[in-house]
Amino acid sequence: MATLSSKSNQELSQLLDEYGIKHGPVVGSTRSLYEKKLRDAMAKERKAKPSYYREEEEVTYINHRRPFGHGSYRDRSEYRDLDTTDEPIVIRTQTQQYSSTPQAWHAAPVYETQRKPAPKPTSARFVPVWLQILLFLIVAGFLVFIFINMESEDTDPFKKLA
Amino acid sequence: MSTTSQKHRDFVAEPMGDKPVTALSGIGEALGKKLEEQGFDKAFVVLGQFLLLRKDRELFAEWLKDASGANARQAGACSQCLQEWCDAFL
């Protein structure tokens, strides 16, 4: 991102329009004010983006490489340009899709960000969602296993009575 | 702001002519000096800046705070002063 001070007055004016900032002519006395407003707007935009696990909002994550190399990963219509290029691919998707399809958490995209103000490269949680679900299934499976064994034990007392 | 100072009323009552920048409501000695250092030595020059910012009070107040170190109250008073002057004479 080029520094704002090197942009022309017209370019600044266009940027202000893009960010929806109401402004007058960009001239000598107004320039520094508008540069400041643009910097604030850009910083705000960067801050608003890394909201990874919010249900209500759109999810933006950058895939540097194909996570886990799943072949089915390519079939998903959202990931159109999934090439192993050096450029990070920013893919926007609804978190609803993310949680409903079983493939989603399996693929577990590595959330990497190149933005400076981002707190951590990984998500805000200590344990990623897919791992939590996996652990949950393991625990549930374990409980089912115990339950089944309990059932077989239950038949013993009946036998004894008979 | 419903209550306006005498300074405000005096300024809005007539064309500003060559009044100094300290004649503006909210602009005292200290702020006036800072503005003069940047070339805003007359009230009409500050008016020029207000007009360049499309008479947007918020934008002008922000500029004034950055340019002179005015606080929110002072910047608000000045912007209101200029706006009312414009409503009457522009």
From TrEMBL, chain A:
Keyword Glycosyltransferase among record annotations: no
Amino-acid biosynthesis as UniProt keyword: no
Keywords annotated in UniProt: Membrane, Transmembrane, Transmembrane helix
Transmembrane segment boundaries: 126-148
LEM domain ranges (all copies): 1-45
Source superkingdom: Eukaryota
GO annotation, cellular component aspect: nuclear envelope
UniProt-listed SUPFAM superfamilies: LEM domain
Annotated protein name in UniProt: LEM domain-containing protein
Annotated source species: Electrophorus electricus
Automatic annotation (TrEMBL), chain B:
Name of a matching Pfam family: SAM_BAF
Record's keyword annotation contains Nucleus: yes
Gene Ontology molecular function: DNA binding
Record-given protein name: Barrier-to-autointegration factor-like protein
GO cellular component: condensed chromosome; nucleus
Single biological process term from Gene Ontology: chromosome organization
Keyword Cell membrane belongs to the record: no
Subcellular location: Nucleus
Keywords: Nucleus
Main location: nucleus
Native species: Electrophorus electricus
